[in-house]
Amino acid sequence: MKTKVIPYGRQHITEEDIEAVSKALTEDYLTQGPKIAEFEKAFAAYVGADYAIAVSNGTAALHLCALALGVQPGDKVITSPITFAASANCIRYCGGEVVFADIEPDTYLLDINSVEDLLKKAPKGTYKGIVPVDFAGRAVNMEAFRELADAHGLWIIEDSCHAPGGYFMDSKGMPQNCGNGAFADLAIFSFHPVKHIASGEGGMITTNNPELYENLMQLRTHGILKDENRYVNSIEFAGGIDKYPSWYMEMQQLGFNYRITDFQCALGLSQLKRAAQGLEKRKDIAKKYFTAFEGLPFIKGQSGVVDGHAYHLYVIEVHDRLGLYEYLREQGVFAQIHYIPCHLMPYYRAFGWKEGDLPYSENYYRHCISLPMYPTLSDEDQEYVIGKILKHAKGTDN
Ligand SMILES: *Cc1c(COP(=O)(O)O)cnc(C)c1O
After folding, report:
1. For position 91, what pLDDT does the model report?
2. Mind listing the pLDDT tens digit for each residue in 275-311?
3. Which residue among 272, 291, 319 closes a domain?
4. For ligand 1, atom 4, which residue shows the shortest CA distance?
5. Can you give the pLDDT at residue 108?
6. Is residue 260 part of a domain?
7. Is 2 among the domain residues?
8. What is the 3-state secondary structure (H, E, C) of the chain?
9. What CATH code is carried by the domain that includes residue 373?
10. Which of 35, 158, 206, 258 fits 262 for a cystine, CB–CB 3.0-4.6 Å?
11. Residue 211 forms part of a structural domain
């Protein structure tokens, strides 16, 4: 009999969260209220960036970044295939061409050497940007990517959906937070319930670049500008005499409605207060998995214990992946697979991508499985999961 259902990830909603949202619902604004700027400010401080722009979801954040960086039809942009499809799709929304580079087999992150190979083989100017992904919560060495990007005149969008609170150590031995704007031009986060911080749907862009910030704020809301110093139409046209009337605004570029609501930001803010605590719990869970599986031959690789890892996911690679997946489901443990390589999705195959193009990514996909990882996973439930994995491994004798 199934007694348990343990998912791979889940949100954690507390009484404080409920109170915060209830309070926001009784205020004057449902959307475009004060909680949005408050959440932006608090989030920027959390990751250590100068600016943050809250948007309706992580995919909208990626789309706005691609727009703000001026991706045009035919522009080539490099990303990892081991990510959620949105990291690549944002380039397609602007008509750009996605070029996938392989991952490093040990970190599962976009391999800087394979990116460099692509750049070296092509005439200068062929590629416009790179979208590295802090996959599973492990921070990309963005300093190294910045150096490479600068040498080739490229921009960087860091997809940090998995890594709020994650960091890498720079060449001076200093921790550099994911999305802190020190190296990537723009970084994006998601507040989907399965991520570290939940707001229902929700996303955030962070940057240290004031021009990109201004532009993104406009693009988030239809490309509308309200700033009399930058209007193009005359005061007379606007209907004023010696100044622009206060109703006046200008739509100067084609934007979208990618706004987030005030009550979602109230939830995000409340969750953000517990983010550091949740991160510690994730690290504890990772350590327990690591210790339980250390040295076992049936596990080819695992996320391991890495400083600065934000542990959105805890991935292991096993020989009998399908067998383990099915067995765990029978036992009520809903592990997941992250990800089917993007380049092998039918949509991207239609551009000519095929099996064999990116061997490390494809090999990773054949073996990977993401184990339950969320701050409210109890010790008892984790031990249950570990016990089942060990049992299955003995049974299959590989
Ligand atoms: C969740 C996620 C996204 C998209 O975020 P949404 O809020 O679901 O639109 C993009 N990239 C990665 C790596 C993600 O995990």
Report:
1. 98
2. 999 999 999 999 999 999 998 887 877 777 899 999 9
3. 272
4. 58
5. 97
6. yes
7. no
8. CCCCCEECCCCCCCHHHHHHHHHHHCCCCCECCHHHHHHHHHHHHHHCCCEEEEECCHHHHHHHHHHHCCCCCCCEEEECCCCCCHHHHHHHHCCCEEEECCECCCCCCECHHHHHHHHHHCCCCCEEEEECECHHHCCCCHHHHHHHHHHHCCEEEEECCCCCCCEEECCCCCEEECCCCCCCCEEEEECCCCCCCCCCCCEEEEECCHHHHHHHHHHHECCEECCHHHCCCCHHHHCCCCCCCCCCCEECCCCCECCCEHHHHHHHHHHHCCHHHHHHHHHHHHHHHHHHHCCCCCEEEECCCCCCCCCCCEEEEECCHHHHHHHHHHCCEECECCCCCHHHCHHHHCCCCCCCCCHHHHHHHHHEEEECCCCCCCHHHHHHHHHHHHHHHHHHCC
9. 3.90.1150.10
10. 35
11. yes
